[in-house]
Amino acid sequence: MGLLRATLVSLAAVTSAASVPNASFKRQVSQLRPSYDFVVVGGGTSGLTVANRLTEALSSKNTLVIEYGDVAQSTPGVFDPPTDWITPAPDAPPAWSFVSLPNPEMGNSTAFVQAGQVLGGSSAVNGMFFDRGSRFDHDGWATLSGSGDWNWNGIYPYFKKSVTFTEPSPAIAQRYNYTWDVSAYGGSGPIYSTFASFQWADQGVLGAAWGELGIQRPKECAGGDKEGVCWVPASQHPVTGRRSHAGLGHYANVQPRANYDLLVKHQVVRVVYPNGPKSGPPMVEVRSLADNHLFNVTVTGEVILSAGALHTPTVLQRSGIGPSSFLNNAGIPVVLDLPGVGSNLQDHSGPPVTWNYSKPYDYFPLPSEMANNATFKAEATAAFNQPTAQGPYTLAGGNSAIYVSLPHITSQYRNITQRIRRMAAGHSDVAPYLPPDVRSDPAMIAGYRQQLHVLADLLENPEAPSLETPWATSEAPGTAWSFLLHPLSRGTVRLDLADHLAQPILDYRAGTNPVDFDIHLAQVRFLRGLLSTPTMQQHGATEIGPGAAVAADDEALRGYVKQQSFLSFMHPCCTAAMMPKPKGGVVGPDLKVHGAKGLRVVDMSVMPFLPSAHLSATAYAVGEKAADIIIDAWN
């Protein structure tokens, strides 16, 4: 597709998303067909990807997507006008906001999590940071799933297929020293990505300091090799600079399509097996948000749960599929005892290293100009609204991050991995590290031990990152976040016992496996080395937190981690893991729920552990691969 035509298509999609033809866009049960071949539960990143591909390839079969939210008239980028880098976007689409239970191991702090409550799901509200995990993440996923189909070679083609990457102009690439390998992309998918036409004036300060700290700078980090200082594209259109998301690429841009229906403002309550789970496909029980009317949708082919890592397990639990102990406590008849449903919650978390400068910091422009300099902000807005977007507002949330492996962080890495291996081998009791209502289940214990084996291998691999630090500026006060990419602790997503239709209860349980603190401490100490580099010393970098005295004492630094960590960087996953049933798994490599005929899960629930990446690009790739699996089965 030519760049001009791509621009026109994208702009048309932006204006048409709120006025989709009635042939496909439904608000009432009376508008639905008597039955559907496929019902996709959730119009988010993976769900819309699947629906688009199924309706494209299987034109004789009808697909219905059921979405809790609505079609948003505007889906601005994370940093579009009139935002100022500091104030959140005032016109952002609706999002779910969750606050977890207090976390005793982390000073009773809570995790704040958001997810998209709009067509397009989290792809319509996220930070637009469009990276991929390392090949070793996906090879570990394949080991745990028991199938090589989900290793790096098995999913890499779908990363490519899902996106159209546009190279920056030679002038922009030279100005910011962008590097990339176009062969890592090579697709022509409906989601766009590119690099910004702008970086803050001091972006290179940290870039130089990371190099002085010994971190390498690979040409490309999206091809499976991801250790070093990385340039990361954003999910945005290369001409308009605006957000590219599933609600556009996988819905508005492909309508009207006669076999593709969308029902908005409805909640899927549960799937129903009148004659038992082997008699599927199930019916889908749906609730209208307008009047609470309940009705069933008849399905002749399959139900595909794509409600996301926080809502897919609640649909399953309301359906009687989940940990029997919890279902009994909730008064829900057990249809399938799958203890892994909602029991493997993970998210990226971590504390910052912060600093100030004792010498003048005279770069221009810096992010503070957006809040304090009305002239500069007006010029930035005008630049963004040019026929080809330019300037600060094309930056989204930033394009750069470091990814560093544990062997490159601490010489004591083997002490950490040996501690994990002893747990995995049964030399210590791992049950206390599991959620209380499943910690006596042999399958959950066996599966967790296998996860620990895989994670020990990852953490011992000098090419597999365990730390991420994204950045776009060094403006004071400076911050380097320490993302724990592969946590060992496991939380839960459970129905609210007082109201099964309310939002679920999240219990993050961060830090319940004490080895997570060993890794946190090593990573914080490594990041403190940034402030001793020649570049940072030249600027008079002065540490604010944790400080030398705290960092020198394990107990004091552990207290700093507990008090200063963000418990969620909004990457929840893994609550319906792809593992064998005897290992506590919920779905198999074909994404079918164990023991439930005609029911699959396709979203970030299915990963057994967190990858070293933000999750948007992975959600598209999983959707693309799932669609091929389903299409092949029905062909």
Q: Shape from CA axes?
A: globular
Average pLDDT value?
94
Low-confidence stretches: 1-23
What's the story with the biggest beta sheet? 8 strands, mixed
* CATH superfamily caption of the domain at 3-76 and 124-202 and 234-342 and 572-634: FAD/NAD(P)-binding domain
- How many β strands by DSSP? 23
- CATH class of the domain at 3-76 and 124-202 and 234-342 and 572-634 equals Alpha Beta
Helix content estimate: 25-40%
Number of helices: 18
Going by helix content, strand content and strand pairing, the class is alpha/beta
What is the CATH topology assignment of the domain at 3-76 and 124-202 and 234-342 and 572-634?
A: FAD/NAD(P)-binding domain
- Separation of the first and last Cα atoms: 29 Å
Percentage of β-strand residues: 15-25%
What is the second-level CATH architecture of the domain at 3-76 and 124-202 and 234-342 and 572-634? 3-Layer(bba) Sandwich
Rg result: 24 Å
Pfam family, one: GMC_oxred_C
GO molecular function: flavin adenine dinucleotide binding; oxidoreductase activity, acting on CH-OH group of donors
Family: Belongs to the GMC oxidoreductase family.
Protein name: GMC oxidoreductase
